[in-house]
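CORE FACILITY INTAKE
Project code: CF-77B
Contact: R.S. (postdoc)
Sample description: multi-component assembly, two entities in total
Requested service: structural model of the whole complex
Turnaround: standard
Below are the sequence entries exactly as provided by the requester. Do not edit them.
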Amino acid sequence: DAMVIQNPRYQVTQFGKPVTLSCSQTLNHNVMYWYQQKSSQAPKLLFHYYDKDFNNEADTPDNFQSRRPNTSFCFLDIRSPGLGDAAMYLCATSRGDRGLNQPQHFGDGTRLSIL
Amino acid sequence: DAKTTQPTSMDCAEGRAANLPCNHSTISGNEYVYWYRQIHSQGPQYIIHGLKNNETNEMASLIITEDRKSSTLILPHATLRDTAVYYCIVRVRTGNQFYFGTGTSLTVIP
């Protein structure tokens, strides 16, 4: 049973046209993450939510935004996609109770192509 | 966050133990070592983690040196389905961020 669900698996958008990727989870985890993974590279953390608190990585471009309307859902918005934003986008969750050091659970990603 | 160094690639014969090393010489006392793997076109999968003691679960064993500057992930009987990229990550004990290193591409050979 899928616990972190990313839809769609493949997304195509046009250069400069805003796009939203979605992630949902059935684990009731309070932390949700977004990663960008380009071909043959490791996943790169963009930002994460601890409950409703948004934590941006210092080198994440302003073009990338996120929303978390409730515990179960999190969205990645790319305001003006460029060709360099073509990548796999991975969503992950974890229990964020401090000190418990719980692992992350990943979805299978959305592969974004830019035309 | 402490950085990790892993070999770029490794081969292992099917049925043999796969030993994947990771160096984390700048690890601090409150940082855990995590291992994930990523099979092509899938999201990373959690394998195991530890602080200073060796750990074992149904998937693998984690051996951490006494000085904690390096660790080894052991897959006791590698199968073809273990072919994947294996990532070693160090994580602050009270932090929420996971930063992936470059990983080791393991190929299990029939």
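Facility notes:
- Chain A has no helices and eleven strands.
- The interface with chain B takes residues 4, 31, 33, 35, 42-45, 48, 50, 55, 57, 90, 92, 94, 96, 98-99, 101, 103-109 of chain A (CB under 8 Å).
Invoice: internal transfer
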